[in-house]
Amino acid sequence: MNSISSNYALQLVGGHNVCSKKPLISFDNKLILIPSFNSIRIHFLETGLLFHSLHSQNYLSDEEEILIIQLDPLLMDSSVISFSSHRNVIFWNYLEGVQVKSFILCPSLPSDSLLCFGVAVLHESSSQDALTYYFALKKQCQLQMIFSNDDSQNVTDLGIKINQRHALIGVTFGASNTFVAAFKGNTIRVLTLPYKPSNKIISHSIAKQEFTCITSHQTEYLLAAGDTLGRIFIYREDFTHNLHPIRTVVHWHSFAVSDLTFSRSAAYLYSVGKESVLVRWDVSRSHENTYLPRLGAPLKYIICDRHNEGVILTHENNSVKFVSSTMSEHRPIIGGLNFTSHSDDSEFDGHLDWNSKCFCIVLK
After folding, report:
1. What is the DSSP string of 321-359?
2. Is the peptide bond before 293 cis (omega within 30 degrees of 0)?
3. pLDDT of residue 341
4. Which tens digit of pLDDT belongs to each residue from 30-85?
């Protein structure tokens, strides 16, 4: 080190993290909504251009993070619901870019009771405007439930443990919200909905390895979970009540499975991981796979678009990509960081790299 003073400081000059949380497709399939710390960025799906951002100055503090977003079950064509780390639930009109209403889940809890998962569900047996809220706090990592029409916000503990580290991809509601499934360690627990005290939890376990992600089909009784070894366990039909259900195990990934999603038609299951390869499994017939390699940086999340035309991929380098359902076309939606290679004797630390796009050093 030379004698010149080395008092350096980091300054944020721009950019948004679009890969830390799972994105969402708008009801008309034209927009992609992406949680980015305490805001929601909305881009056009076709061009990737920014439409606008949703940000609440009044309700979300600087250290508060939006964890999960979902379309409002009562107003899917224009409303989105966000759940923050500090238990703030906000309803937004994502077309007009305005906040509609908000409330705090279990306001009587201490302020340090942080959320790790939340979702609003409309059950067919419910009245027209009654949403049921399912959530988990970081300290307990236990799935709980409250009714929107319950002024006292009495909480029901469902007895389902979740994995805090994988909470955002560790809980799923399927078959028109008639069951919920979540994993912790090597065990998946399934509970029939709407909840009744008499409903029994059904557990499905694997040996030695642990689950890393789980998904279900929106309308069919289909459940899939990936594990640390790269295997995928596919359950169908009787897993909500049978301790030994119909199960198929497929294996392609060399590393842990990062995320999974079923196609809208229920014919295919898509899986991603650190290999930077999209794998499509035919779950309607032979369970044969088709894969699309060399997609860039390791893959983190995957969602299916609403028209069954393709899937959206989130990469670890802060990029988002569209892949057609035929696996024949892929195009970027949001470009990510472009890291250059450097020699082993480089002075850069392992967490620093040079981004040639914006001519700056970036912290990875």
Report:
1. EEEETTSS-EEEEE----BPP--TT-SS-TTEEEETTTT
2. no
3. 46
4. 999 999 989 999 999 999 999 999 987 666 777 889 999 999 999 999 999 999 99
Residue at 202: amino acid letter: I
DSSP state of 150: -
Q: Using CA atoms, how far apart are residues 291 and 359, in angstroms rounded to an integer? A: 35
Tokens representing 156? 């029901």
In 3D, which of 168, 47, 75, 153 has the Cα closest to residue 119? 168
Q: How confident is the model at residue 342 (pLDDT cuts 50, 70, 90)?
A: very low
Cβ(49)–Cβ(43) below 8 Å: yes
182 neighbors 169 (Cβ within 8 angstroms): no
Structure tokens at 363: 């912290």
Q: In sequence order, which residues have a C-beta less than 8 Å from that of residue 303 and are 6 or more positions away?
A: 22, 23, 24, 25, 261, 311, 312
Q: What is the pLDDT of residue 85?
A: 94
Tell whether the model's pLDDT for residue 339 goes beyond 50: no
358, two tokens: 């914006």
CA distance 32 to 44: 6
